[in-house]
Amino acid sequence: MAPKRYNGFMMFVSEWKEKNPAGRTMTLAEAVTKCGEIWKNMDAQQRGPYISMAKDAGVAKKCTKSRLNCHGQSLSALEREEAEAAERELNMKRATERIVLAGKERHDLENTKFIFAAFNYFTKSITNDIYIPAEFSACQFSLKSGICSMYSSHIDPGQLIFGQGSDTMHHTNNTHQLPLPPNAMGESDIGRLYANIVEYLRTCNPDAKPNDPLVVFATPEMIPTVKGCFRYLESDSEEPLATIHTYDIQYLLYVLKLEVMDSVDIRNVTVNRAATDNLFVNDYFCYHLGISCQYHEDIDRCKYCTQSMVSRWSYVFSDFLCGDLAITPLPGKHMPPKQQPRFHVSNPHNESANSSRTASNFSKTTNKSSGKVSNATFTSGQSLVKHEIFDHSAFSADLNAPEDFPSLGGRKSKPNRNPMGKHLAPGDPRRAWNVPASNCSAKDLEDSFKMPPC
Ligand SMILES: [Zn+2]
């Protein structure tokens, strides 16, 4: 519909209709015909007020119309959304601080319990923020006991969103690699799963009243997934069994660190958000084995397993905070359980010629590489002991070997034809920095920082 335009004549018509008793009973078309005759006989001075009234009305309309951005979205609506998001963030921070401070006031910060939760999803709907879950894990954590309990389940949602098969496959293959429905594993009764999860979260919070909201923590990247998956689970039951708030775990670590340091009187160390956030980005425990579910352990996708995620978050907390409170870390609770060696030892003297040939090939391969794989063969007393590594993530290759990387064509590294500092006189101390450190005397290195004599 074209926007309504105001003109002087129509202003006159509406005023005439209002002021004349006969006009009030007329239709607009009749009034326009009648007023047309009057308008014709009016001079410019008489028409003037109506024309200026029309202009004013047009300007007023423009002012009330909201401004849009280049995507056609109302700026005022966007501003309102931003303000709401900022308020939610502030509320989340205040609630996190309240939880930590409550523990501090009880002088029981080390026994304050937190629940960490993570979801893997198959796909998410485009129109509303609902995620179709694939795997859920939650753990209860306290600084004193580490991981107190764990709830973990694969989820079979039955069906996915129609028309999003490609996106689903892409996301799944790049992350958790759980089989898609109808081959999905785990709990298929979503209502029961939701009830179980709520019950687990309630048992983790025995002090909470029945109507109190339940609080779980997740990383900022995980929060939309956790909220979206809970929304999906809720949608399957008639009424939500509980209000579940998902808060930022990185902020929790920051606040907890500050309060822990304050409670044990450590004042000479400054902590900032960037440093604590980095602990999650670096993810030191990412490649530890034995902390994810059996399925992900078997397909070597531990990084994406939710069980591994919540465990790793707990280990980050323990690693960063237990030292301040002099809590002895326990394997499996505060840090990954002891690693089992992923190899078996066999004596090649007892094996057939065929296998000893394999052993010699094996040692040749490993000798090419450097670092941790090279210790796979070693001589123990009289016999050569062979370690067969089953870890497929272990990788050994020589970048200059054409058979390993045919596309490189056996490229050789070129000698540096013009080393820096060549133009300098042989005795010039500035040459020293370019010499490999092993060929330098300590005096050379020291001299290289001095200016040459003039
Ligand atoms: Zn898993």
UniProtKB/TrEMBL annotation:
UniProt-listed GO biological process terms: male meiotic nuclear division; negative regulation of DNA-templated transcription; oogenesis; piRNA processing; regulation of miRNA-mediated gene silencing; spermatogenesis
Coiled-coil segments on the chain, per record: 78-112
Domain Maelstrom: from-to ranges: 124-340
Matching Pfam families: HMG_box_2 (PF09011), Maelstrom (PF13017)
Ranges of residues in domain HMG box: 7-56
Keywords: Coiled coil, Cytoplasm, Developmental protein, Differentiation, DNA-binding, Meiosis, Nucleus, Oogenesis, Repressor, RNA-mediated gene silencing, Transcription, Transcription regulation
GO molecular function, one term: sequence-specific DNA binding
Gene3D superfamilies found in the cross-reference section: High mobility group box domain
Region (Disordered): 333-374, 401-436
Origin superkingdom: Eukaryota
Localization terms from the record: Cytoplasm; Nucleus
An example Gene Ontology CC term for this record: P granule
Polar residues composition-biased segments: 347-374
Family: Belongs to the maelstrom family.
Protein name: HMG box domain-containing protein
